[in-house]
Amino acid sequence: MSYLGIDLGTSGLRALLTGADGTPLASAERHYEVAHPQSGWSEQDPADWIAALEGAVDELRAAPGWDALKGIGVAGHMHGAVALDASDAVIRPCILWNDSRSHIEAAALDATPGAREISGNIVFAGFTAPKLLWMRTHEPGHFARIAKVLLPAAYLNLYLSGDHVADMSDSAGTSWFDTGARDWSDTLLDLGGMSRAQMPRLVEGCARAGTLRRELASKWGVGNVAIAGGAGDNAAAAAGTGVLNEGQGFVSLGTSGVLLAARGGYAPSPQTAVHSFCHAVPDTWYQMGVMLSCTDSLNWLARITGTRPAELTAPLGEHLAAPGRERFLPYLSGERTPHNDADIRGAFTGIGADTTRDDLTRAVLTGVSFGLRDSLEALKSTGARPASLLAIGGGTGSRYWLRLLATVLDLPLHLPKAGEFGAALGAARLGRIAATGESPTEIMTPPLTGEVIEPVTGMTEALNAAYARFGPAYSGVKSIQ
Questions:
Q1: Does the annotation mark 233 as catalytic?
Q2: pTM metric for this prediction
Q3: Best CA proximity match to 205, nearest among 165, 257, 260, 150
Q4: pLDDT by residue (tens digit) across 174-201?
Q5: Can you give the pLDDT at residue 476?
Q6: Count of beta carbons in the 10 Å neighbourhood of residue 36
Q7: What are phi and psi of 312, to 5 degrees?
Q8: Is residue 434 part of a domain?
Q9: Which pLDDT does position 472 carry in this prediction?
Q10: Quick one: 160 and 190 in the same domain?
Q11: What pLDDT score does 384 carry?
Q12: Of the listed 178, 233, 296, 374, which one is catalytic?
């Protein structure tokens, strides 16, 4: 038997085929563009996702084990709004997670009594509900045609199974969801101008949501294939890294930065701007802090200096330098945790005639690390206490950054051995459980650790002092509107 994990990302789709024992057999990637019709807008045509999926499957069909495919799971970027009419035709391009046009609607909805209490979260501009309120005001013709609203992963589920079905982890990021009850909230739907009839059917992420459509099964050369409920991208990454239990967590150094902790129960704390979402397995939740410009900050510096990110970090070596006078605030696209400010922007301070490119690079890495420390402090205020963190994402290629981050967080960072982990593997695991009924705890195990990066104790005091001077120091609720 084999299982397919689909990771629907913002810039591309990755499909991973695994064997009966979870071993990766083959993978394929396809890429697509993001449109920015106006400043602060971010959209995609869902047809591009289908084309990417079909292209990836065409490549994988030649892989050993493809004809034994038994389960498929989809992980997707969260919060996007795919509006469908009564014939399931896409009404307009999907408004993505990093689109800020609905910040006014989000603020109004967030200020409504009970909204945070039901959803367990602030209503961020990137969430789904305010996008539909924006459509109601600015695109009333489109809004009037809406029969269903699907998240990106659920749209792929529709293509695969022919059914409108979504999982709990993805749905928790809509601001229409009662995260504690793991169900749509009629109150929040009414506040958002929507109805339960316009929502997809809900299942747990590892449950069987349907079966691969007969037409696709014939086209792809496979038999009866289970479609899992799937997951939002971070819940899938947690499934792929085995982060299921209290005390486990990971830090992801990607375009955005995520510090995620699995929770044994539901303990929302919206005033901290921590996200409290359902996990992809039953009776489990997770919390995470999110910063919007993580490796994106380093990419920006590389772009304006005419170099590549690896060329910026390589001269730093591995030895940590004491914090310099140069300081970087990593808010190039606004910020979520803990500031909840779509308008905040970044800055360099302390620059002098003697400032070098290496000084700027260190300042960027330090500023991003302090931003992630903000998320850790916010998580701690909710009772989360990870003893260590798995470190994943493209930023882990910098040894200097890893040692700096371990020291700033004062936590050991575990680097997985080379191999598959993360959202695509997590999605494949969900597909496997949906097909076989196996226990999630038996399948969703952590990867083998290749190396542990320990905090540099001699630098802790200096970095703690620098963190205390970093913008408005985290105070639990100080920065939250």
A1: yes
A2: 0.91
A3: 165
A4: 999 999 999 999 999 999 999 999 999 9
A5: 41
A6: 13
A7: -75, -40
A8: no
A9: 52
A10: yes
A11: 92
A12: 233
